[in-house]
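Why run this: before we spend reagent on co-expression, it is cheaper to look at a predicted model of the complex and decide which construct boundaries make sense. The entries below are exactly what would go into the expression plan.
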Amino acid sequence: SQLSLYCSPSLPNITLGLPAT
Amino acid sequence: DCLSIHQLAAQGDVCQVAVHLNKDCSLLNKQDDRGFTPLMWAAAFGEKAVVDYLLAEGADPKTVAWERESALTLASMGGFVDIVKSLLALGVDINTYDWNGGTPILYAVRGNHIQCVQELLDRGADLTIESDSGYSPTALAVALGHKKIQKVLEEHVLQLYSPD
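The model came back. Tokens follow.
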């Protein structure tokens, strides 16, 4: 995730792009 | 002067953070519009000096933001192992989970931060907790191809079952 001073830090979707188990 | 206490914390400017807190001590645990405190911003940006300062001033390390993001998960995602250690020393929940079932160790695995993974394992992180999409830390390491982390996790499990 790109950190920016202009918006709250965010946590990414843990498994973005991975197939569902 | 235009930056919020959160942005100042993220910039690592301990002096400016101190000046602002001296003027208004309620800023210490002030949550922004997504529920993030200055401590969380500093943890996310890896600003250890600010993290230490805020904790010394009594900032609450256990506050979670609106989607349950925490300083520990933010530090784990960034691989900031010194900050992870400081937070764990204060008794924060090592298995805290957020909006997508993400735990600190899942984020450390996702970010490929081997030292963070090791620290969390040493402190007893639960390896059985899965994300909402069903990935355990080991499954995530395998899926992402993080082989060194996979090895660390597997060795940890082997040690758990070692007769010694």
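Chain B has a mean pLDDT of 95. The interface with chain A takes residues 3, 6-7, 10-11, 32-34, 36, 40-41, 44-45, 65, 67, 69, 73-74, 77, 98-102, 106-107, 110, 130-135, 139-140, 143-144 of chain B (CB under 8 Å). Bring this page to Monday's planning discussion.
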